[in-house]
Amino acid sequence: MTGSLQTLVDTILGLLFPDRCASCGRVGSLFCAECQAELRPYPAGSPTVTHPYDRSTFLDAAAVVFVFEGPLRDAVHCFKYKRIRRMARPLSNLLQAYLALHPLPADAIIPVPLHHHRLKQRGFNQTEVLAQHLSPACGLPVLARGLERSRHTEHQARLAAQERLSNVRGAFVWQPSTPPPTRVLLLDDVLTTGATLGACAQALRAAGTREVRALALASSRPERSDHSI
Ligand SMILES: [Zn+2]
């Protein structure tokens, strides 16, 4: 389809099915400015922070941008479960705005992989789609085919903290024969536990990565002083 024809089709589709805010339903955009203004930085009441991490977690840093609640929960739900992939644009813009203020040095972005069972259910890895949108803005390539889940793990949210660690330990592996980048930005959408990020970082380090920093769009967990986020 030519560019002008695509534009015409988009215009007609836009008239027939105008974008509505995933949270308040207001017509005009998928995630309106009013709802975005309600988002609460993580942790509540202070600028988003980058936590230094104990080496035992395998992460050099981990940053969470927003508290997972209200309009953001609605927007992520729309993206992930209603499978509205275009939600990736406003959500990745939020990540981009965060990185512009709080750069995390890296050579490439690696999205946390889904197990292929879940990928089949959902049809796409939401974090990979976010990474693809973020990539041109931050000038980093996305490596979505190197790190893989080596086995299916239970939903982390259903498990106690200690079980979470053992649930994901060794659950990821770097597949290619070529080593992963020296510095990796590990991306996740909603952080339920840092155990998954730690296990990803562990696999990357085992294959040669020297620095792993993690960025998640949101987490509902309160700030923790230990290293088990
Ligand atoms: Zn709204």
Considering the chains and any ligands shown, give keywords for the structure:
alpha/beta; Rossmann fold; 5-stranded mixed β-sheet; two-stranded antiparallel ribbon; globular; disordered C terminus; binds zinc ion
Task: Describe this entry's structure for a reader.
It is a single chain. The chain is an alpha/beta fold. It has a single domain (39-219), classed as Rossmann fold (3-Layer(aba) Sandwich). The protein is built from eight helices and seven strands; from the N terminus they run H-H-E-E-H-H-E-H-H-E-H-E-E-H-E. It has helices at residues 3-16, 33-37, 70-80, 88-101, 116-122, 126-138, 161-168, 194-207, and strands spanning 50-52, 61-67, 108-111, 147-149, 172-174, 183-191, 211-219. The strands form two sheets. It has a five-stranded mixed β-sheet with strand order 1-2-7-6-3. Helix 4 (88-101) crosses helix 6 (126-138). The longest helix is centred in the first third of the chain and has 14 residues, at 3-16. The chain is globular and about 50 Å long. The protein starts with a helix and ends in a 10-residue tail after the last strand. Zinc ion is lined by residues 21, 23-24, 26, 32, 34-35.
